[in-house]
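Reviewer 2 asked us to include a model.

Predict the structure of this chain.
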Amino acid sequence: MAATESTSYVDKLAQLTLEEKIALLSGCDFSTANGVERLGIPKVRVSDSICGIRPSGISGDMTTACFPNTVCYGATWDAELMGRLGEQLAHQARLKNSQVVLGPTINMHRDPRAGRNFECFSEDPLLSGQLAGAIVNGVRRGGVASCPKHFVCNDAETLRHFYDVNEGVDSRTLREIYLAAWQHLLRTSEPDGIMMAYNKVDGKYCSAHDDLISRILRREWGFRGITMSDWFGTKDVVGPVKAGLDLEMPFPVFRGKRLVTAVEAGEVTKGEIDALARRMLELRDRTRECQSSGGPERSEISDEANQLARDIAAGGMVLLKNDNCALPLNVAGVKPKIVLVGEFAKDAVFTGGGSASCTPQYKRSPLDILQEEYRDQPDALRYASGVRTRRYIPEAPTHLLQARNGQPGVDIAFYNNDDSSGKPHLEEHQERPSVWMLGEFKPGLKVPGSRVQISTRLTPDTTGEHTMAVRCTGSFSLTVDEEEVLSGPEVEISTEQFIFNHILLERLTTVSMTAGQSYKVVLTMQGPSKLVAGEPTPYAACLGFERAYSEDAAIEEAAALARDGDVSVVYAGRNEQYESEGFDLPDIRMPENQTRLIRAVAAASAKTILVLHCGNPINVGAVVDEVDAILLAHFPGQEGARAALDILTGKTSPMTIEYAEGIKMGYRAPVEPQRIRWPFGHGLSYTSFQYTDLQVVKDDGSGAGSLRLKCSIRIQNTGMRAGMEVVQMYVTPPESSSNNNCVWRPERELKAFTKVTLGAGESRSVEIEADMKVACSYWEEETTSWRLQAGTYGVLVGGLTAKFEVEKGCSWNHL
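Predicted model (structure tokens):
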């Protein structure tokens, strides 16, 4: 990836003016870091995400290969598979003319309600860091850069721009959990960038935190890539430069002319600017191979990407429960009478919301796939949509709308308020009843000082009390046949919430309508009364519509079908409307209407299988004893429906803010086992495995003092099917040491893992290892150093235990 010295962009540093150097330190739009055209220094295109490479811009809807969500990656426990994913992401990035992939996200699953958990790997720093490192290495092999995020402690979305994690960077909590994930990442890979978090740590914003950037990342860990802000993540001019933040995104807010002024005033030195500009030029040298040729972005469907998406989805789905031989379903011989239940069975779930979302290249639902399987027995497959699973009202569907020209859709007119003629400044016809502008407005439209009108004729196809909804940023009026049915004031909403949390804009009403009758619908909205300082101003209006329906009738219909089937498969959980960047969940309960549906179907059905879509945990306590099997399918990407059905049918075997809790987070916490239904590392299979002959040795084979803890174990597939097993090595704290009564240690901590595939009856010896210091040390806050205690430690692998001695304790500053 490196350019030769004679062609290096770094060589041009001395030719740059101060203004040009500063231009390199910020973006020029939502997807691009600035270049310097005069010297042929290119711009750098960045793109979200590792679940699918998004097109440029903030609202582009070009499709891409859509892979599962990151928590599904974590559940694979498969670094080799993640390396393949990284290589494919690099290829997809090149199709979108991108040089930097923004990800992986390695924040911790600290709180099960965190809206962005689906975008992170797990609650364990080693698993998260090592799998992320495998992806980074794969991206790098593909000639593209990566920028993991968010450094550090962005483990919740609520007020993420403002909250302060009240833990010093040298606290044991940060060092052993939150910073540890980044250490594991940097031990196994060399990312080209790291994105800083929005929040504060110990009173300082991460984007201006000199301890985090300069001391820990650069001096302690030797990180040589760039650091960049999250979008609108800087808060002042001087602080981020002093801390070493190289790039402000998405465009100059605190840089540009303001930074030039700070240099001229002596608040920032030219040497400090040169250091940042040099790293930005080094990034261009490392990504020279994939600099854009200027061609159009594109999306290409490939068998290789599709198979990889399917392999990851199947490898990460977890069978949580399987009673009464409910699974696998036998559809190879005499096909069972299957009843599919749930909107997600017909309208498949692909991804979570926010910057980690993407538009899949194709959409195949479980119903689509099973209809193909049952084409010779169509009467043996039935479907009931059940209850509605949306969080907010959908847009009014185009096929129910008619514009003035007789075509499906709406008429949109933009007016400048000071135009006394009353004529529109601009008129458009479009299919969707939605206007969405963020900072960039229609040419000649005055902001403030304008309004928009969406008009159409709506013809419902059913009779009843239909729901009409409006999602508007400004004050509005909605009329049906000239009668106002809904109005509302301007909404005070941040740019971030406008992008991610649409329900905050929603106001709704019910209107009685008759099937086949045409109704004139007009939505008029005033534009913003003022511009937002420092961020782009939202200007949006959307018309929503939902047909009348009876929830009780929908549940009864599903139960009635279930009575006549051999097995019911209920697809439930959440989608991108519930789990997203920008907001957290209020709780983790299953939506009440879905709980009612599942219980009614289970009561009527001979066997019931629950397929759960979610990134965050869901409390299934109200239904877990009612169903026979539960498959956690995550947000599984464009091949997810097929992967889930492969597991259900046996074609694939499943595998096994003040941080007050400190390091007692997740499985490390001292919680009674009966309080945890499915602990970290849990997963059922269609076969069984037996572990024997656990051996533990300490090895200094290199002779350089890097003592290794090595474990070997024999594992046998004792079942009748081939299967995959994750071999997990945990270390337990020392039984005796002079300090043991003073320092609390978790009962066990994951220190190494590997994944094996064994045929029926096959056995194999497996070896896994870890650096002794990494495996056995803890962070000592008093001395701000890592400490290895002497004593007798334990190793747990597959239910077997072994012990080893550490004869002499020691401490050191860096791992």
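Residues 1-5, 657-661 have pLDDT under 50 and may be disordered. The radius of gyration is 28 Å. We have added this to the supplementary material.
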